[in-house]
Design a protein that fits this description.
alpha/beta; TIM Barrel
């Protein structure tokens, strides 16, 4: 059964239980089946356990998203120190996912977010990424966690921009717990035919982000049309369609994601309208 989720990055990139507990109540009231936490920034791992227990109490599933700060850890860096820093960083992502009660982590977990060499990606960088990430993803497998790798647009990453490149990477990894996350906003930029790209990649897709072409309210632009939902409803997809949208609530990502304006009258309005759009498309 397809479920509908909400990424809490809309409101905060470092959720605090005392301050943000009510977001879970809100998501439950709106009708979401699950919530998605950012484990790229966690000030206090104990917060994850509090959120996880409360999500379970409300009957909300949990997924997570993580990104690497390229100045701290980067799988494609020519600096072996930055590559070596990836494993402990990713291990903490997985450990916090487990603390939250989640079994799926997604994101561009093949290079540092916003890192560019100034040239096209090389086979050496590809090899570095595979070599660096394989033991990380094996750690996730050992702990029952699925990894969904996200192709991003050319302005945020350069190693993997298309579904086809994502499939190639997953095939070369050859790990049973690793697949793809596809995001409609990124695909809107990089794919010539988004629905066709998703159909071709469907056997590898483990998670989906519904994100409008401007990162605002799903259904108000041209990236979240019915043809996209038909791929999943007609193709036997059995996972989450999770809204990833922004309204200047995630300051650590403002520069990397080029978020220079508001995208909705309010965060809550964005979430409600996005949820209703997805439910209507699934009917």
């Amino acid at each position: 059964m397809i479920k509908v989720g909400m990424n809490l990055l809309l409101w905060s990139d470092d959720a605090n239980f005392a301050q943000h507990k009510g977001l879970l109540d809100f998501c439950k009231e709106v009708g979401f089946d699950g919530v998605e936490f950012n484990v790229g920034i966690v000030s206090d791992p104990g917060e994850c356990q509090l959120f996880g227990a409360y999500a379970k109490e409300l009957g909300l599933d949990v997924t997570t998203v993580g990104t690497f700060n390229p100045s701290v850890a980067n799988p494609v860096s020519p600096d072996p120190v930055l590559r070596a820093a990836v494993y402990p960083a990713f291990k903490e992502f997985v450990d916090n996912t487990l603390r939250l009660g989640g079994t799926l982590i997604c994101g561009p977990l093949y290079q540092g977010l916003g890192y560019f060499s100034g040239a096209r990606p090389t086979e050496q960088e590809w090899a570095w990424s595979l070599e660096t990430m394989k033991p990380c993803f094996q750690y996730a497998e050992d702990h029952g966690v699925t990894v969904a790798l996200e192709p991003l647009n050319r302005f945020e990453t350069y190693l993997i921009n298309t579904c086809a490149d994502g499939v190639r990477y997953v095939q070369e990894l050859d790990l049973p717990n690793v697949g793809l996350l596809v995001d409609t906003m990124h695909s809107n930029i990089e794919e010539l035919d988004v629905a066709a790209a998703y159909k071709a990649a469907l056997p590898y897709i483990r998670h989906v982000h519904i994100s409008e072409n401007d990162r605002g309210i799903p259904g108000t632009g041209h990236a979240c049309g019915k043809e996209i939902f038909d791929v999943f409803t007609q193709g036997g997809y059995n996972g989450y369609l999770t809204i990833e949208a922004f309204n200047l609530g995630a300051p650590s990502l403002t520069g990397a994601l080029h978020l220079w304006r508001s995208f909705a009258p309010s965060d809550d309005d964005l979430a409600r309208r996005g949820h209703d759009h997805i439910r209507n498309m699934l009917k």
